[in-house]
Design a protein that fits this description.
The structure is a homodimer. By secondary structure, chain A is α+β, with helices and mostly antiparallel strands. The first copy, chain A, has helices spanning about 90-95, 115-125, 130-145, 145-150, 155-170, 190-195, 200-210, 225-230, and strands at about 1-5, 20-25, 30, 35-40, 45-50, 55-65, 65-70, 75-85, 90, 105, 110-115, 175, 180-185, 215-220, 220-225. In chain A, helix 2 crosses helix 3 and helix 6 (about 190-195) packs across helix 7 (about 200-210). Chain B binds a DNA duplex through helix 7.
Chain lengths: ~240, ~240
DNA sequence: TCGTGTCATTGACGATCGTCAATTTATCCG
DNA sequence: CGGATAAATTGACGATCGTCAATGACACGA
């Protein structure tokens, strides 16, 4: 097997770096598909892909700055993430085989390395190490500051505590006498850690929820009145 | 190629579900390594792995509840994440080939499905689709509520804004007359979105940072005095 | 039973945040 | 240049949060 062309990769930072896409031609030789890694320059404000688009490929930012923005039904929009050089865009849509959940737009003059969906699949199937790099990149992006910033305080602490308690009840709650209740496996301190607040603040959040009647607390026990379960979550 | 044993997988939820680990024996037949997926039961409080441990494998929670906790140098600890049934633990250490950053301990009587590192590598190299599932699972966990909860308000908004500005300067700032400065490609509204606060609050955060002198703002321009750069970030 | 230590709650106070409103500044276009 | 529109800032006020401190509840061992 012989590679006929030494491909000049447009991006030295992305997870596909060093990979080539080839197809067999004859006599065991292969032809490199040079159009697999398409260098694409974006002007300020130019859209890389639209929200809801199914043109699934994987993009990695070579330089510049890309904003991933979600447009809501009421016409407003929220900036969800910034993609800095070296980061990957569209991985979720690629892996899920679904539509993009955000619009990607250049905030600065930018260059991205585009890997078409078919070619990305080709690479990934031929070399699992690439997918390992993709998955690792994905894990690492979770740790970056701006990822943690996202969605931090958009919902109130009361809502977040409610969500956490409901999730716990959902997994481990028991029906006892018309109530869904459970023994909380977490200390107040642990709950406070998860919400990122002080234990005293958490205690007051618990107190407010108790007073509003949707949750009942007895020490480390928490319960939900059965009739409330179908009524949904209060604000 | 013939699989000699139909392996009974202990966990119907994890990303490895449906996969078998086999090795060739003779005549093109393969032997399933039944010990690849080890069902492990944990009592309340039992430790699955310690922080800093390099016993890298991939675990998926079959039932129960696992707490991932980081221990700090001063003896305190912080609950970083809860792993519910169906979720994966240790993926980061596995992909990075590094040590676990957290201690994993059962909060309830739990069962996990253990895939040894060697076997996980074996599966992943033999079937890229598994790694796709792993990566997808990783992407999806970012979206879950409790992942968003983590690290939300642990650092003050002022610190988070400082980190965001520094990251932007780092990537796109220019040295102009003893100052590192840049044209902010984001509106105030965008900055507020990223921090999860209201635009008015962001305006006041900017104002405080400006008054403290570490950053200078002029409309959409932001700068850092050169002498401050080596001094580090103020609180 | 009685300490004792840990955890949870409550109070007080200053700081910050969300909301509404008004004002100032910036930007765009004729 | 001037006017219109949008963006950013500032003020005011009530609600919430962080911090320090005190109190109450609970488990555990002597």
């Amino acid at each position: 097997m012989q590679v006929m062309e030494n491909f000049n990769h447009p991006c030295g930072k992305c997870a596909f770096y060093g990979e080539s896409v080839w197809q067999p031609v004859a006599d065991g030789a292969v032809s490199v598909l040079t159009r697999s890694f398409v260098r694409k320059d974006l002007e300020v404000g130019q859209v890389l892909f639209d929200q809801g688009s199914t043109n699934r490929g994987v993009f990695c930012v070579s330089r510049g700055l890309i904003a991933l923005r979600t447009h809501h039904a009421d016409g407003s929009s929220t900036l969800m993430r910034l993609a800095y050089p070296g980061e990957i865009i569209g991985l979720r849509a690629f892996l899920r085989d679904g539509a993009h959940q955000t619009e990607a737009r250049a905030l600065l003059g930018s260059r991205v390395c585009t890997v078409a969906r078919r070619d990305a699949n080709h690479i990934v199937q031929g070399n699992p190490a690439v997918l390992t790099r993709l998955a690792l990149r994905c894990v690492e992006e979770v740790d970056t500051n701006h990822e943690r910033i996202i969605g931090a305080a958009t919902t109130s602490n009361k809502q977040r505590l409610t969500g956490l308690l409901l999730r716990l009840m959902e997994n481990h709650g028991e029906r006892i006498g018309g109530q869904l209740r459970m023994q909380l496996p977490l200390s107040r301190r642990d709950l406070a850690d998860l919400l990122g607040v002080q234990p005293e603040t958490l205690s007051r959040l618990v107190g407010r929820l108790k007073k509003e009647g949707f949750f009942s607390f007895a020490g480390r026990e928490v319960g939900i009145p059965a009739q409330s379960l179908s009524a949904g979550v209060r604000s």
